[in-house]
Amino acid sequence: MGLEDDKRIDALELFSPEVRKKIEEATRYPPLPDWPVQVRGIPNICLRSALFGVVQRGRRRAVKGELLASIKGISIRYTGWRLDQGDFDVLLYALHLVSLEKSTKDHTRFTGKGFLRAIGRASGKSGREWLKDSFRRLTGSAVEITFEIKDQFNERSYTYAGSLVDEFYYCSDEGCYLLKINPKMARLFDAGWTQMQWQQRRLLKTDLAKWLHGFYASHRAPYPIKVSTLKLLCGSSYGRLSDFRGKLRRALHELANINLLESWEIDKKDKVHVIKRTSKLRS
Fold first, then answer.
1. pTM of the model
2. Which site in 24, 26, 85, 209 is 20 to 30 Å from 129, CA atoms measured?
């Protein structure tokens, strides 16, 4: 225990037990919300922006303070190697493990092979190296997210700054990890979150379909949106809009095949209209 901790304890002793309890509750990080075992909980901020984008193989790049595309009411600046849908799967499952543990421990323990199998990845040497690289990206990133929370009384703006993963330890002999999610991430759930159907996502083949799965899962009744806007929001690295539109059609067809969408169309004004199938597992 350091000198600053000693000073804090001494200062708290000046207050009554009731006041001390309120101070400790105010400074304690909130736990993650609960969700059923067959779904995965994730803040909507991660689903309605280019934070976890559609990055073509070989075109991942490092950025510094880059403003990422997002829906209205969210502002995201990012520093680090760009994150993709593979990194999203890693964070999604890591959050799920933390939620399942329901303990006061700082770190969650798991094996690399088990983690990879759970997210549908090969657990061989290349897969294990890929997983470590993903954790490095999630740990080494710097994210600054400003979002608005509205209630019946007022509208408040909050800013979250930090990495998505605080730290991880890896034991090569045992092939196991000790991982600590940034506890402040729990605050991002306050701005809204979604219960994603995990088995649906695992059936998807393309990164664009996976991004769209999260985007539409986060909306109860999706509104029409321009193809060009979707291209920006998903962080697509496809240069021409016509190339993206072709990929988008195939991705929407994937979503219909897994029964997320009842129907979809791109109208003459180049707007995407979708109708979702009803589901009981939405937040």
1. 0.83
2. 209
